[in-house]
Structure formats: C-alpha cells, structure tokens
C-alpha cells in the first residue's frame, strides 16, 4: 500500500491549495511552484502512486483527468493556442510526489518537449 502524500491532504482540504475543480473522482489545483504562466495539477482523489500502479479500475478517474484538463484549459482561454499535459513517473521521469498527477502547463510557448537532447 502506497503512503499518502501532501496531495491527499489537499484533496481532503486539510491544507490550503488553490483548488480550481473537484468532483467525486479528481481534484485540480494550482502548482505551488508554477513552471509556466498556467500550471495546474490534476490528481485522482484516491491514491495511485505512479503510472506503473494504474489498474483497469482506475481508467474512469484517469480519463476524467484528461477531460478536466481540457475544460480548465478552455476556461483559462488557452485551448486554441495549446498547452502541454505531462505525467512524470519515478526517478528518471522526475517524479517528486508519489500520488499520480497530470501537469497542465500553458499560457505561453513552452519550447521543446525536453530540455536535454540525447
Ligand atoms: P512531479 O515532479 O512529482 O511530477 O511534480 C510535483 C509537483 O507538485 C511540482 O511541480 C511541485 O511544485 C508541486 N507541489 C509539491 N508540493 C506541493 C504543494 O504542497 N502544493 C502544491 N499546490 N503543489 C505542490
């Protein structure tokens, strides 16, 4: 069983966060250290540690994460120009918080997908 992270406390509103959306499956809130003019994290309400831990029973929540990302992008007025959705996994992916989350980044041209080329 994976250990809870700070994101579970945000989802339960036990610690402050700028929550933009919440339903029975997912919660979306602003990243505390934004890496783009718009940087939102979209997370399932139940704990899934990494992409490696996703089960078929999680598919509804994972799909909802994408529809909520598109809705928030549209509401922010960045859908037409575009944005980036990122999900980091484990150390090589740069994952820091082990509660699976999708980054919604936009509001400016984001440059190449990766800062380093192989
Ligand atoms: P990761 O590197 O795991 O893909 O991304 C974790 C993200 O969570 C980072 O962008 C980081 O800024 C954000 N983050 C970490 N702790 C908090 C927090 O307490 N509140 C919020 N809103 N974001 C956080």
From TrEMBL:
<dbReference type="InterPro" id="IPR019808">
    <property type="entry name" value="Histidine_triad_CS"/>
</dbReference>
<dbReference type="GO" id="GO:0016787">
    <property type="term" value="F:hydrolase activity"/>
</dbReference>
<protein>
    <submittedName>
        <fullName>Purine nucleoside phosphoramidase</fullName>
        <ecNumber>3.9.1.-</ecNumber>
    </submittedName>
</protein>
<feature type="active site" description="Tele-AMP-histidine intermediate">
    <location>
        <position position="101"/>
    </location>
</feature>
<dbReference type="InterPro" id="IPR011146">
    <property type="entry name" value="HIT-like"/>
</dbReference>
<dbReference type="InterPro" id="IPR036265">
    <property type="entry name" value="HIT-like_sf"/>
</dbReference>
<keyword id="KW-0378">Hydrolase</keyword>
<dbReference type="Pfam" id="PF01230">
    <property type="entry name" value="HIT"/>
</dbReference>
<feature type="domain" description="HIT">
    <location>
        <begin position="6"/>
        <end position="115"/>
    </location>
</feature>
<dbReference type="InterPro" id="IPR001310">
    <property type="entry name" value="Histidine_triad_HIT"/>
</dbReference>
<feature type="short sequence motif" description="Histidine triad motif">
    <location>
        <begin position="99"/>
        <end position="103"/>
    </location>
</feature>
């Amino acid at each position: 069983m994976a250990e809870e992270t700070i994101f579970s406390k945000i989802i339960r509103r036990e610690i402050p966060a700028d929550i933009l959306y919440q339903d029975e499956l997912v919660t979306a809130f602003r990243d505390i250290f934004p890496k783009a003019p718009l940087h939102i994290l979209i997370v399932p309400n139940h704990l899934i540690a990494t992409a490696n831990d996703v089960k078929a029973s999680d598919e509804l929540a994972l799909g909802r994460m994408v529809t909520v990302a598109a809705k928030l992008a549209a509401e922010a007025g960045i859908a037409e120009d575009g944005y980036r959705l990122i999900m980091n996994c484990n150390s090589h992916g740069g994952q820091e918080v082990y509660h699976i989350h999708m980054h919604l980044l936009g509001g400016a041209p984001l440059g190449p997908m990766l800062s380093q080329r192989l």
